[in-house]
Amino acid sequence: MSSNIAFFIFAVLFFRMMRDLISKLEADNILAREEFLNLIDNHTPDDAEYLFERARAVRESHFGKAVYLRGLVEITSYCSNDCLYCGIRRSNRGAERYRLSPEEILQCCEEGHKLGFRTFVMQGGEDPYFSDDVLVPLIDEIKSRYPDCAVTLSLGERSRKSYQRLYNAGADRYLLRHETAATAHYSQLHPQWMSYERRMECLMNLKEIGFQVGTGFMVGSPYQTSENLLEDLLFIARFQPQMVGIGPFVPHHATPFASEKGGTAELTTFMLGLLRLMLPGVLLPSTTALGTIDPEGREKGLLAGANVVMPNLSPVDVRKKYDIYDNKLFSGEESAQYVRNLADRIASTGYHVEFVRGDAPGWAKR
Ligand code: SAH
Prior knowledge:
The chain is α/β, with parallel strands linked by helices. It has a single domain (about 65-355), classed as Aldolase class I (TIM Barrel). It has 14 helices and nine strands. The protein has a six-stranded parallel β-sheet with strand order 2-3-4-5-6-7. S-adenosyl-L-homocysteine (SAH) binds near residues 125, 154, 155, 176 and 179.
């Protein structure tokens, strides 16, 4: 009997402690290492619900009920890099390669603009075809055709000089996930010629140049520990990015990680909630990867504090070929129908799509 009482008291204290930690994170935007670890390792579904409730309150105080859409144009599946987790790594001889011409990319933007998109994200492998000499006139053309739109790039590691030229051409934002903030883990996920230091240097350069910068990591990538996730959070707290992209790791059949376990929606949404309390005004996408492993994933992400969705605007015939992980959400519908369906699904969460540029708070159009 007395041991039952002791257990009850312990359970109540523990329950309070998790909630206190969540409140502390909301108040201070940071926790001590052990506190973060405790939350990551020991939270219950009730604690997660409480975190999401607080994360929604914080997101609503900055963004109301608005969800920002970004039109994602996957411009090339050629890649000279060899990240071990990625389906378009150069060692995957079976990957189907394509690249869009500047004219095709402009067509995607035209269609996207008609649909109401005010941010275009050009993402791709590290493809030497997309040199500065190809990208600069393209960015310039998009910005002069659509002066009300933001251009985001996500084209991997480049020199500082190149980033500067792309910025000067009018690019507003750059996404480069750090992937993992633990150096040893970084080398387990990447070929030996890539380095954590170089990744960090790229991120610093992007920030100094003046981009709105996005970074992020995969949840549940091979060899990842809770300490690694803690390092990711601490790095993000120091770096103070304007955007954070996270999604579950999803194995790809033609990579060295084919038979590894994938990340879970549960841990991914929990990390989204923590990120929202750490960086209240951050732009936080509910990613395609989350929607891929859970049919309700994107909605769950929005209800955990995310406020951005990045639908695919690539031409339907190439969408399948930007094959970075297995079973990637793929819609064969033309973009207009697809965006209408997506907007309906977003509305089911109580949030709604707003067709605006959606810059980070405090950042104006250049
Ligand atoms: N070449 C660009 C864009 C990469 S694709 C760059 O290096 O930044 C965008 C993101 O997809 C990557 O940063 C990575 O975090 C994620 N990704 C790649 N393979 C994945 C996989 N198997 N599962 C989940 N996410 C993956």
